[in-house]
Design a protein that fits this description.
The structure holds four protein chains of four kinds. Chain A is α/β, with parallel strands linked by helices. Chain A is built from 22 helices and ten strands. In chain C, helix 1 packs parallel to helix 2. The chains are: A alpha/beta, B alpha/beta, C alpha+beta, D mainly alpha.
Amino acid sequence: MIADIDTLHPLETEGARLGIKNPAQRYDRQGERNDQDRMEAAMRAFAHDFGATTAVYLESCIHCGMCAEACQYYVQTDDPRYTPVRKLEPFKQAYKREAGPFAFFYRLFNLKHRVTVDELQEWQELIYDSCTMCGRCSLICPMGIDIARLVGQARHGMFQAGLVPHELWAVAERAEREGSPLGATPKVFKERIDWLSDEYDVQIQVDLDSADILVSMSSIEIMKYPQAIVATAKVLNALGEKWTIRLDGYEATNFGMLSGNAQWQKDLSMKIINAAVKCGAKMLILPECGHAYGAMRWDGANIYGKPLPFEVLHVSEFLARNLRNGRLKVKQVPKSVTFHDPCQIARRGGATQAPREVLAKLGVDLHEMSPGGDLNWCCGGGGGVVTIHRADELRYKVFQIKMKQVDESGAEMLLMSCSNCRQTFDDGQAHFKWDKTAHSLLELVADNLAR
Amino acid sequence: MSHDESIGESLRKQGISRRAFMKFCAATASLLALPPGMAKVMAETLERARRPSVIYLSYQECTGCGESLTRSFSPTLENLIFNMMSLDYYETLQAAAGTAAEAARKTAMKENWGKYLLVVDGAIPLGIDGAYCTIAGESAADILTEAAKGAAAVVSVGTCAAFGGIPHANPNPTGAVAVSAVVKDKPVVNVSGCPPVPEVITGVLAHYLTFGSLPELDHLGRPTVFFGNTIHDRCYRRPYYDEGKFAKTFDDEGARNGWCLYELGCKGPVTYNACPTVKWNQGTSYPIESGHGCLGCSEPDFWDKGSFYSALSTRNWSGGTVLGAAAAAGVAIGVGAAVVSRRRRAQREKEKQS
Amino acid sequence: MSEVGIFPIKRLDVPQAGNRGQLLAVVNEIESMLARLAHDGSSGSIDLRGLPISPDDRDHLRRIFAEGEVRAVIHALGRTEVYESIVRGVWWVTHHDDDGRIAAEFVEVTYMPEILKTPPDDIADGLETLRTQLPTLAEDCHRA
Amino acid sequence: MTLLDFARGAAMKWSIAVFLFGVLWRLVGVLLLRRAHDYSQSRGPSLVAGALQTIITRSWPRKEFRASTAYGVAISYVFHIGLAIVVFGFVPHILLIRSLIGIGWDGLPSGVIYFCSVVTLIALVMAIIRRLTHPVLRLLSNFDDYFSWLVTAAPVLSGLLVVAHFGARYETLLAVHILSVEVLLIWFPFGKLMHSLLLPLARGQTGAFYARRGAST
């Protein structure tokens, strides 16, 4: 099915995880440039983010170290290098020299030396491999510093310096070039849709000129969990909505954002926004993908430069709303279930209650993880980390927290509403030969629709 | 008066019994915080000692110190000490005047050269060559310098003599200085206070007579036995300080209850003197006991340390303008820093575009 | 409520802030002095002037060492009162000046306070005084 | 002029001037930087309420974090509360504050203050020991952390020495105590002590950020 996709950064299709093939040799400096050039580019990107909000955060840290206790990487390794706020060190250093109120003195007396390429190189692992931007640290910080957001900003400089882990850079580059990071080009997508509507006898609207609802998908779903497309269609058709998928704007993942390229982030988001505007959609449904929610629901309007002319809902929110108002009916599912909250949807997205409403309607016996909801532990695959091969060992270490949580919940079924989490779970399951399989909340609903 | 007879003989002549003398020694030893056994030693030593010559000079002063010292003229216990000395020159008390008085001083100095005790009260004006205070055509500084040459030791009585006191207070128009600023080569003991506690003066003299030396002194030249503790440490109102009970005004409930006067400006915590233990007027009371905070009169420059009625921990400066200017400058530079930072950012953006 | 001039005066029975810890220390010290006196006959003394104790505590001390069997008064530049307290061996010596104010005050732990003993020189004087009288007395007796 | 006169006079004036100057410089310099407008559709009812809520609730860790942070938080609480009691409860301090800004209040018994100072000092010592031994803190700490600790602990220690009359003459100790506070005032704007003023800002903007998203903080 995906035979004719681009081979510049070949996909790895065999494993449980979908991603770019592990390069034979590490190559984590993009482009042929001198160090000075890289530094200048990083500084320009950093400077872009030095607004008042960031400044207040960077001025406020009291080095109390509490964030370490919230971070899965520190908790699982006891390595102080993984202390979240320390991951910002070069960014902070640049701020003090370039933008802080005492920047003049920092430069004059060289109190904080210039950030060097070597430092950034060293920090590459900390900013990418060992941070999913899950935001637990942002919740423990007694000063209220939103460390996760700052890591996101720090990645901008890293990208401009050409210092991104290679696979993450490659998927982002593919997304920018092909419209999808993982080979789900419009052509591939269209083939999939045709095949799915045939196979499952479900009507999937494509490229309508006018629709109330625009549906976007994650390429992970398209390539690995195509059932999600079927499930979405089933639900929308059951509701009798006037909806569509548009091939000029369907890819909800945003590896531009995860890799740290603000321009690519914008390009990717604008495709969907333009598509929605074009078909006059009143609502955009985001797929089961965590960072897609952050990228569109919260960053979308800011990229657009004004409020979006449509509502943005995560599919779980959409389900909850329609179950609540009675338009959608489901059968009872007599099972015990535990739910994994995707960080970007729950903790950092604010849509924590929606899946619980859905689960309540399904009548399942919900066993919450401990801690669950807003303080749920990350699966370890977010923030693009799942794509980075050299981070695998570390990722498996932190995944053990997740396995323990799931096992301790004692539930029969493991649900989540993020396909990236889901592939991380699949990969972890394969690695540890674990007996728990991750399932999609959307698919469970679609499978149990009542007439 | 003969300097040859012993103190014991002299006292007997004045009808003072040995028991009376022992009583004096007991009281003095107590005053000097000597071990009680020392009273006996003191009595035996003084009994046989010669009466020393004392020359008492007064300069820029108010006679308060003299008043303090000689308030009572009957031979009481406190000033029995004067019966043990030969006070050969003291302008305030002596009968002689004019050239006769000066002659008495010169004679006493000559006869007891190197042995007499020089007591000084009042500050010494050095302005316009000492012309602000002259006696018989000689400046205070000159007389003092000459008198000090032949003295065994010098006792500066009162804060003016000890530290310059009120004449020295800002702006010090006469260039007044302490005795110790003029007398450099003789031991000087400072008995400060405005005026000093009389028993402190007699105590120092008794110590000198008994031991032939000056008592142990603190860094300001004051006898530690009297100036070793702060007023605050020995204050009977101290428990109220520790309990946090303070009089807020001079006639509030707290003042009537005898609470601590710290808030009313008492300088007790930084003032070293014997007031709370020796007290005044034969042990009647002392300022704090009478309801007024300590002024700190036994400390240098007590006159120039801000209001007597503002609490010790408060500021002793005014500087609204300085603070206002500092705040304004802070805001201005803050704005400047932000503007520079924004410009740098804009410039980076531009470079990025190009 | 009475008035002194224009100032209203309100009399309050305010207990002096006491410090019983100090009192206890003083009594303990007297106890050890007394023990020493009993053991090897050495006397001791406490100068009450130097004690930072409240008037209340002083009264309390007075009650513990209340007047016992012996009392003596010395007239020398003011009265000096000496008494042995009910705690025998503990003497209370108060020197007053001419105006009757207390000049010094001691608690002495001894067989007899020094001030009561006749100074040796006084004994010589006494002997002399007596001897000057003896010839006259002898003459008178003889005549009789 | 004695050391005490200097401490109560020129040193106090200029240290307060530096304090005001530096604090305003830093705050204004930070707050006047560009603040981007957020166009996303807010889920929360009130961003201000969210900001205020977080300013308060972030004062203690959420229950999930309590076990792992208890020791550090407890130490911080002890010395922060201790410092507050000592600074704002001791009568001589209150008198100083009143003489500076005209507002005063009743003080606490000195015994309470002494006790609190000792407890505060112990907590501060525990804090620095923790900083020197905990691998995370050791890695994070820089000059600012140690120096700020020093200028915070010094007034507490010197204050205790003043009341205990230990080590030097009272007025010298008092002068040293006042000077130690002045060093703190001078350092305040340039180091992490500024967190006391930045705290509501940082927490508030995070609170508003999360309130917009309808997420809990």
